[in-house]
Amino acid sequence: MRLSGFLGAGSATSMTSFFSWTFFMVFIPLCVISYTLVPNKLKKYHLLLASYVFYWLVSGELIIYLLLSTVSIRCFGLWLDRMQSKMKSTFSTVPKEKKKETKKRYIKKQRLIILLAVFLHIGGLLFLKYSAFFTFNINKLFEHFNIPVVLAIPRYLLPIGISFFTLQALSYILDVYHGVIKADRNIGRLALFLGFFPQIVEGPICRYSQTAEQLWNAGPVKYENLTFGLQRFLFGMLKKLVIADRLSPIVIEIFDKYNEYSGAIIALGAVSYTIQLYMDFSGSMDAVIGIAQIFGIRMPENFERPFFSRSISEFWKRWHITLGTWLKDYLFYPIVTAGKMKKLTASARKKIGNHFGPLLAGSIALFCVWFCNGLWHGSGWNYIFFGMYHLVLILSGSAITPAVNKINNQLHINADSFLYRLMQMVRTSVLVVIGELFFRANGLRNGFAMFGKMVTGLLPSLPDKQGLINVLIRTGRNSKDLIIVAVTLAAVFAVSVLNEKRISVRDELAKRKILIRWAVFYLLIVYIIIFGAYGAGYKPIDPLYAQF
Length: 548
Fold this sequence. Notes:
- A hairpin with a 2-residue loop joins strand 1 (about 5) and strand 2.
- The protein contains 19 helices and 2 strands.
- The radius of gyration is 25 Å and the shape is globular.
- It folds into 3 domains: about 5-220, no CATH class; about 225-305 and about 445-450 and about 465-548; about 305-440, no CATH class.
- It is an all-alpha fold.
- About 75% of the residues lie in helices and about 0% in strands.
């Protein structure tokens, strides 16, 4: 069965998850073996074929969306390229006094091309992904004002990964417009850039300059890339199967039946979901980067240990990095560098100072960024609230920074001390957990109900042993599951601490004797086989971010 379905109701497939046995034990081995057998000059076509076979298996006829997006960006790129070439040739022949006017005219034409490209890609995404949400809310508005009109709520087949490859397509068009890259005439290279099979389900959101040439010039599989790639893949599998999937039933139980549980159990559910989401998403990114590394492809990192962050702003520089940089480069900067925004900033600087002046104009751009960030994740008010929640936290943090620094100086507090940094990390993590509670809640109203019950009932209900026992019984789990999660989390945390200190565990392991290296490798495999959440009693869980 393909991963396609009506909006908000996709159906599962054995190929959707990188950690399914079908993908890991059948598709990847066949892909790698056949890749090594084809001549070097044909390897790029092998990757392209494998990518489209994979996408066909998970989306079926909805592959047409990927094909249309690929053809579209090629046409728009070449159109921009012709316009830029024409501008240069015309620019060299016009008199000096007319150069400014000529350039302005051609820039206007290029912007119209960009506007059309954005309208088609973002418009199509909005239409497919959000029309049901908007129609539902319009009906609610009509009902509130007693207007006797009920619009039919549309249902559309939604291809997997459309949000990811749409942003990649737009980044290509915008980079051509800005002169960062040249328009590519090779539709095969563009197709592989957009459709490379490991990244199309959950990202990372790559730029053309990062991966297109690597993919098109992929070479033979090397032993180092194979072993390092498999190690990274297995580490991701450890996060996903042992931690995230084991926590999934607990999270579902608490969020679906929060009325039956105390504030302490709701807090447990919020923390569990935050851990689940991070382990699921970062584990999937480990798989993507590991698979790509097998073929010698270097993918951009999407996580840099976000829970070591000292502020919400820093957290979002470490979490889903490629989405954050996309929004910063293609939404935030164009807004703050617009002419009217520059004038607003200059005026604000004079009236409210050099700190709050830029913050005023920046807050407008940040509003656009976080509104889009929230809506990008899903069609629901809880997602929009999630975006606004983090907007308020980031703006508040920026606004009080001078006052905090002043107080620290007056009280002789060392902001770089371990205890101070630990306090900041704990505070940031708590704020993140609260945001994830609203993100995961079954609607915004339920999110507020859960938050209110958690805040008012947390301390009085500690410790709620009976509530925890009820959760475990209802989900078929027991204390051993919690111990396995805790032990595995400790191992992942230890690796994260070393990485935060710029110590690569894989590099250090590579320096050891082959017996030690393979002993660790097999120990990891055995651990996943024994403690992984799969088999009888476990429902296969698709990657969480695939739905976004």
